[in-house]
């Protein structure tokens, strides 16, 4: 397929990413959504007309499942599916980042803490799949992406491979019941996968990230990670049990076991620290023998404090003795003599310290009301624009709709809230990264609803684009756009 080719009169091919015996994957952009980046997967099909109808029906069913799963934030959205020239296409959300296999190749073996963090973030996705009666069937490092927020995203469900077996039944065995050798369980190889099969694949993935090897026998992997906590090692061993009944049956069960390590294992580590401190015996008296340099420093501090206390006591006694002997001398001297350098005859100094009681209150009131208006808000507002969507704005060639574009500077990791308000048209709002990745969009489909709002985390430092559009192509009118930093 040629670069810049337009599919379905909408999706433009940017470049080819990967080709397998099952499908071809491209990076593309949606010309009807402000060139939003997307992943386009073309299924390799057979031209047998007898299978085409069955294939398209099954393809539509599986696409509906993918669309439902895409509602989870850690599963890519399905944007579209269509058939063109007897070829089937899936259009999915573009995930900017890298997969765990690439991370392993660049950084080497992962630590126990890193693997735990990945499992804790990924197991809830398996919980979601189980609630929807879906089995992924191809969990491995290549199919777990890390996005800009270091959140694992589960990609490449085995649905496409399953459709491939319908079109090419004579090649079903080469697909191995859908999955990757070394990462699939025994029951999945036999074509009888369960939710525990995904847990098995995830356990193998975790061990691979720790060791760089796929375990071929039970417990053989532990020697490559000698410092791993026994509790975590036991959990991984249970997740890859060959017998299905001995394995974790649900993702919730495995997730709970991992979380319990933090509460049961960490305190034991802390309790071992005092055992190496023999000087903390509560019955042992402090002496220069047990406290060498710290002890000398302590006695020096005590001596200094004693000297200071003595000086203060002596000074206090002298002060009170003098006061007792000459009680009237201090009273006879008027305190007015303290400001003697100023002319005593000038009445101005007397009037200054005695203003009217109302004046200070009047002066304080503006300070109290003015400070909140100027301090918090300007520091948070990144962009605020009042504009008019009119025929003079940009025109989107794909559907001739009018849109306005605004930009703002953002930094990596910054969280911003974007609000678009209009009483004249039904609003559509979209935010794009400096690399043209769609970070979020809000289709306001309720007529005359004046609010569109997004909260996004900025993945990189650079200039971001905000698109102001109308859900109704004929929409025109005034709008108010505001980008605020969330703290």
- Percentage of residues assigned to helices: 25-40%
Task: Give the strand order of the largest sheet, numbering strands 1, 2, ... along the chain.
Answer: 1-2-3-4-6-5
> In the residues, how many domains can be counted?
3
Radius of gyration: 36 Å
Distance between the termini: 46 Å
Uncertain parts: 172-177, 264-295, 322-378
- What would the principal axes of the Cα set say about the shape? globular
CATH topology of the largest domain: Transferase(Phosphotransferase), domain 1
Looking at CATH, the homologous superfamily of the largest domain is Transferase(Phosphotransferase) domain 1
- Beta-strand level of the residues, as a percent range? 15-25%
Write structural notes for this entry.
- This protein is of the alpha+beta class and 487 residues long.
- The chain has 3 domains: 1-94, Phosphorylase Kinase, domain 1 (2-Layer Sandwich); 99-268, Transferase(Phosphotransferase) domain 1 (Transferase(Phosphotransferase), domain 1), CATH 1.10.510; 379-485, Jelly Rolls (Sandwich), CATH 2.60.120.
- It has 13 helices and 18 strands.
- The strands form 4 sheets. It has a 6-stranded antiparallel beta sheet, covered by helices on one side. Strands 11-12-17-14-15 form a 5-stranded antiparallel beta sheet, with no helix packed on it.
- The radius of gyration is 36 Å and the shape is globular.
- Mean pLDDT is 75; it is low at 172-177, 264-295 and 322-378.
């Amino acid at each position: 397929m040629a670069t810049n080719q337009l599919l379905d009169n909408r999706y433009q091919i940017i470049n080819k990413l990967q080709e397998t015996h099952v499908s071809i994957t491209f990076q593309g952009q949606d010309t009807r959504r402000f060139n939003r980046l997307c992943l386009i997967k073309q299924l390799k099909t057979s031209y047998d007309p007898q299978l085409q109808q069955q294939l398209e029906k099954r393809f539509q069913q599986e696409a509906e499942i993918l669309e439902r799963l895409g509602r989870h934030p850690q599963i890519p959205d399905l944007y579209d599916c269509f058939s063109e020239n007897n070829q089937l296409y899936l259009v999915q959300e573009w995930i900017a980042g890298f997969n765990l296999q690439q991370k392993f190749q660049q950084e080497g073996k992962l630590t126990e803490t890193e693997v735990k963090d990945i499992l804790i973030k990924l197991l809830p996705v398996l919980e979601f799949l189980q609630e929807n009666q879906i089995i992924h069937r191809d969990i491995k490092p290549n199919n777990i992406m890390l996005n800009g927020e270091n959140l694992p995203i589960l990609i490449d469900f085995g649905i496409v491979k399953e459709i491939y077996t319908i079109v090419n039944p004579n090649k079903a065995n080469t697909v191995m019941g859908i999955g990757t050798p070394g990462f699939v369980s025994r029951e999945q190889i036999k074509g009888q996968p369960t939710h525990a099969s995904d847990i098995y694949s995830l356990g193998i993935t975790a061990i691979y990230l720790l060791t760089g090897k796929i375990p071929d026998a039970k417990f053989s992997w532990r020697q490559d990670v000698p410092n791993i906590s026994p509790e975590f090692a036991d959990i991984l061993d249970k997740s890859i049990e060959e017998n299905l009944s001995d394995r974790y049956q649900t993702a919730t069960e495995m997730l709970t076991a991992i979380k319990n390590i933090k509460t049961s294992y960490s305190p034991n580590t802390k309790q071992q620290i005092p055992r190496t401190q023999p000087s903390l015996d509560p019955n042992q008296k402090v002496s220069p023998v047990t406290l060498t340099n710290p002890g000398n420093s302590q006695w020096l501090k005590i001596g200094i404090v004693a000297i200071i206390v003595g000086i203060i006591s002596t000074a206090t006694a002298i002060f009170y003795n003098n006061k007792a002997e000459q009680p009237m001398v201090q009273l006879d001297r008027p305190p007015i003599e303290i400001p003697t350098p100023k002319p005593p005859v000038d009445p101005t100094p007397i009037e200054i310290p005695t203003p009217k009681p109302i004046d200070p209150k009047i002066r304080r009131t503006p300070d109290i009301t003015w400070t909140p208006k100027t301090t918090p808000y300007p520091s948070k507002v990144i962009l605020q624009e009042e504009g008019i969507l009119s025929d003079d704005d940009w025109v989107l060639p794909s559907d001739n709709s009018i849109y306005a574009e605004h930009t703002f500077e953002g930094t990596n990791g910054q969280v911003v809230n974007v609000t678009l308000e209009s009483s004249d048209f039904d609003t559509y709002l979209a935010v794009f990264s400096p690399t043209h990745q769609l970070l979020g969009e809000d289709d306001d489909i309720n007529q005359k609803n004046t609010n569109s709002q997004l909260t996004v985390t900025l993945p990189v430092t650079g200039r971001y684009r905000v698109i102001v559009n109308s859900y109704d192509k004929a929409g025109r009118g005034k709008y108010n756009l505001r980008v605020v930093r969330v703290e």
